[in-house]
UniProtKB/TrEMBL annotation:
Organism: Cardiocondyla obscurior
GO cellular component terms listed in the entry, alphabetical order: cytoplasm; nucleus
Protein name, as recorded: Protein kinase domain-containing protein
Alphabetic keyword roster: ATP-binding, Kinase, Nucleotide-binding, Serine/threonine-protein kinase, Transferase
Binding site for ATP: 37
Amino acid sequence: MDVRINDYRFESILGKGTFGTVYLVRRKKDLKPFVIKTQDLNANHSPFERILDEIRCLQKLRHPNIVFYYGAWKKKNYSYILLEYATRCTLKDLLEKREVPLKEEDALYLFSQIILGVHHIHSNKILHRDLKPENIMLTGGRGDIVKIGDFGLSKNIQEYALI
């Protein structure tokens, strides 16, 4: 997929962190929503090697329970990572907004998807290192499909390394 920043319209900020800003964007030609994670390459807290680590990890991970990586590019002093937009909410949002606890079978269904995603991550010799409810997105028509995201702290594990 050939990606260029001018192909997207920025709609809103989804989050800001130490390492950058995450935007909801729409592709201009068909209005399909995506996420773009931007990082200022001049900032001391965003070394380019860390961004490359994140991209390398995302490139290896193709799984239904992991946010899909479309591509990355650099323009001027910023890096851009184009990702799937998980349309519902985070697991944190779901748990905080509910007035009653999740039913056991619903919790098991969501948790089993998290386990499948984590298994895929680990089988590709990657550590996520920031797995928490706000980095687990929910999508699908009923908001019951898990997508693990935010690989900004992820690391490839060398075969000879001890965990």
